[in-house]
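Model: You mentioned two targets. I'll fold them one after the other.
Researcher: Yes, keep them separate.
Model: Target one:
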Amino acid sequence: MNDTIKSIATIMKDLDGILIFPHMNMDGDALGSSTALCLALRSLGKKAYVMINEPVPKNLDFLECGCTTNDDSVLDDVQLSVMVDCNGLDRIQGREEVWKRGRLKGCIDHHATKAKDMRYDFSRVEPKSAAAGEIIYNIIKALGVTIDLDMANAIFTAITTDTGNFQHSNTTSRSHEIAGHLYKIEGFNSKAISALIYDRRSKNAIRMESKVLENLNFYADGKLVVGRVTQDLLRECECTMDEADGIIQKMMSIDGVEGACLFKETDHSIRASLRGRSYANMEKAAAKYGGGGHMLAAGCSFYAPMPEVEELFIPELIEAVSRTR
């Protein structure tokens, strides 16, 4: 059962020493939501940090407000460990031990997929929320905190990235209502934030994107498109994996495509980023292999070579896009 926004705010008000855990491979919602919550807690005089163990993506570097840390010993006493925009230890790999130090454990997420064998002292999961940032916004309001410009920028980043700049089907009236409130905050400029997120791609990133798009494969009469970002390609183009963000949106813009899969090769795994247009249930396909997300936006990871992953997973995706509405 979901805890209420009010009860979560009450718990947080009574604690000091709080670590916030966004998911690995941070996106705008994970980092934006975590940063906004951290800033709100600090405004109440609390010791709070966003615990990460990877570089902040280049297009999100403006969210660096002194909140993030990779220092496991930054707090002597961790009274609360809280996951934001994720659920389960497999989503915070490399940070499991510091997570366990929290006297209390919490989860704030908008993904329906629940981790097995996880126990939280409180949780708020809203699958109908377009972004975790919408939940965080309401928690901040319940904390009695006045949202300042840095918090507004972080919340807007969370919502705009997870709604595809308010174009995806998960966008709701609440998404726009929250954004509408942010516009009232002095200094807030949505155009400037959008430019920082979307309009700072390097020449190398554009070159990498073109190579991915040149080598797409199509299945199911063009309903499924599959692309790949390999380590060899990253080295060739002198790019990092976070610079591949946005490629799957280009894949989904192709006429006739119902579903897209972008395989991202890391040193230890293959990450499948999935998108659907209208009826393909990508969450169901991802969940079969331990992943999750939403019906039209999901992901999962495999620990096998690319050819084996493709042989195993592409038939599942073909089935997903071939189902009738």
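Model: Target two:
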Amino acid sequence: MEQHIKQYGHLKAPGNWINDPNGFIYYQGRYHLFYQYFPYAPIWGTMHWGHAVSEDLVTWEHVGIALFPTKEGDRNGCFSGSGVEHDGKLNLFYTGVHYHLADPENIHLCLNNRFDSCQMMISSEDGMHFDNFGGKKVVIPPIENIRQGDKTDTRDPKVWKGSNGWYMVLGSRSQEGRGKLLFYRSEDLESWSYVNQVSKGDGWGWMWECPDYFETEGGQVLVFSPMGFLKDGKREENQSICMAVDFKEDGCEMKMPDKYQYIDYGLDLYAPQSTVDEAGRRVMVAWLRMPEAVKEEGTPWSGMFCLPRVVEVKDGHIYFRVHPNVKKRYGRPIDNVADGGRNGYRISLCLEENGCLNVGGYQIFRRGDRICVDRTKVYRKGENDRMVFETPPVREGNQLDVYVEDHMIELYVNDGEYVISNGVYGIKRELYVSGGCGVELFGMEW
């Protein structure tokens, strides 16, 4: 991978393939965002951790590969995980995967879905250099107790510091094929003890990936990605949802309500991960799933991340507001969308009843108290692809902020009451508004 590639706004693959964000942390004066990375082709394969850094969550620099397979536990991939600071060191936790048998026609794939998963850690003195050959440790081996979790499908450690120790949550599944979470506790980040588990029974997906528990302004939040959550035969049945919960460190007891929200009502985002920013705000990013690779300047790539979002809870509802650093940078007034440059532009307006905003073929419209979109004209025509999306009934008005980039559009309704984000292809530099008021256009400031 070419080193030190700079990007602005949306963080994209530096080439080839990326998916889940990992190890997101503000450490030693910079934001570090690691990511699942296959450096050889724009397709899913043996996972490495790519690494990007930023001082403001807007200007990003790819700085190479941080983690790659070297041990028996991670010989077939360094999969998703998180990062924490302790005693000045950056400690990364991730899932190592070991295939029972690789596909002889493509050794980056597993035959018959038979593999073992363990939880591993590696530390760095500066957040930039990692000893992949001598610095890795297995902290939780493959689970043998079938009542506790699954040997194959237990993964994605999220670690945080509580009031009386370190805590870890893992995604897993039961013998009956129901998703669940496993909670562990540690005094030193190396020796971990199983404490408790939580599930919701049928109808909540067969495995829960990428769990993230945190406290933020207004309450406690759980985010996770149940596999097989939607059962309508459409693409992307695995989804990411969130809910306000009641968690007690003593015994790791968690009460989960029946009510949930999607993290994003465009249903393209997956595997979100959060951290705390320089000002103490809870900030989240997520992976945009792309069905086709993009080829720019001769380099194919697939996968990008949404803009960083501040997560807050208000009256039991979870808001995802675009980070103020991002909104500030998209603050240069422009007269035409063509003036936005390659890093895109922002549209701000109120949308009246039956109003419509056509952004280069991407349709945004209001029907009653719902905001809807249709990307049919700027997406591939796959039989099972999702094309039309809508929010639940909104509560606070009809103010929209739309961030437009060549391959991703993010629509924030009422400053994050709901968000719809979609991947797009072939969008035009055109804008037509009907039934809108207070329309303003902004490009990125330098």
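Researcher: Noted. Anything on target two?
Model: The radius of gyration is 21 Å.
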